[in-house]
């Protein structure tokens, strides 16, 4: 005999005026969690109530309905509606969509409240990421999406970035084959092929840490904190057509430069320009190098110069810095702990005073004509110029050596050499700028520097007369 299938009866739905609703003591939610009631109220105000309240008739002592309805499931929505009523943005008599449970139901009110919260399945993060993409594709801006879901535009950018990872890796993440932190690491480089290559290497390795993923995805790039990037400047690099990568999920020291070749060209050009500026001073030669070799000045004579005096403006600036430094020292003298901001300020003052106190050297103009300089970068990316080095072949010789034929220059082995009286030889026409051991743009540079050198000679002779 076939057993009859019991038919399911759904509870009816109806609109009930807000002022007829009360929060049930059977609602099991006691602890605040998730989106705040204020944010939920704003969401309801924007889009309306997406989910009806589950209610039951409130019975009098004699079992008759009072016309009121209690809410065992949907308490946070009711609180949000109450806030809108309090703010006079919602009328007390506004009809609220409700599912009405029979007062005589065998299912307890606590059962309904517990089921609504426990049967709910949270949206998978990947579904959320893709939903944000869909909203943007349909014309919503990052700011509009952020406002609609009570997050910052930065959070929206992060979730959109996560959705842009290689589809193959997103599927692995969806199947719990990858952590969210690992997925975040893959966003640092938009190259899908490279992302997949890195995962193929990493997933069978013992080291699957996000930092390792980031390292592998950026190993051919240049950090913005690299001294070459600091010297050129990211703005100049981007103006020349260079592109950047950024990590939206953790500090990246300004990001990574994607085109090392372009960066190196810009570094070379800027160093060359700086060298031409130094050449105006009248040096015989200038060597330009990103890194100077160990012992670069070995066998070279170093000129001794006199520190340039401070200008009136420099002296006044130094005095002002010193006065502030001494005032802070006196104010906090004897205290065991100096506030961090004061300690930092003292350090800044010391640095600024040291910059002024480090004076450029003034060299003998006659020595400058036979000496050279090195133009390079220090370890922080600042320009470093080391002036006043004389090569052995450029040292002055006694006239007797020339007359006796023992001078290499007289024998044709060193046509650049200076005579003892300080006059430059005929071949000493201008500054030679060298890069990587050879002349850099020699013809063009010499034409420019010759004019400067001649003008400099005229000024020196005029001062001597």
UniProtKB/TrEMBL annotation:
Coiled-coil intervals: none
Species in which this protein is naturally found: marine sediment metagenome
Organism ancestry: unclassified sequences, metagenomes, ecological metagenomes
Membership in a protein family: Belongs to the ParB family.
SMART domains on file: ParB
Pfam families (alphabetical): ParB_N
GO biological process terms, semicolon-separated: chromosome segregation
Protein name listed in UniProt: ParB-like N-terminal domain-containing protein
PANTHER family, per the entry: CHROMOSOME 2-PARTITIONING PROTEIN PARB-RELATED, CHROMOSOME-PARTITIONING PROTEIN PARB-RELATED
GO cellular component: chromosome
InterPro entries cross-referenced by the UniProt entry: Chromosome_partition/occlusion (IPR050336), ParB/Sulfiredoxin_sf (IPR036086), ParB_N (IPR003115)
Ranges for domain ParB-like N-terminal: 14-118
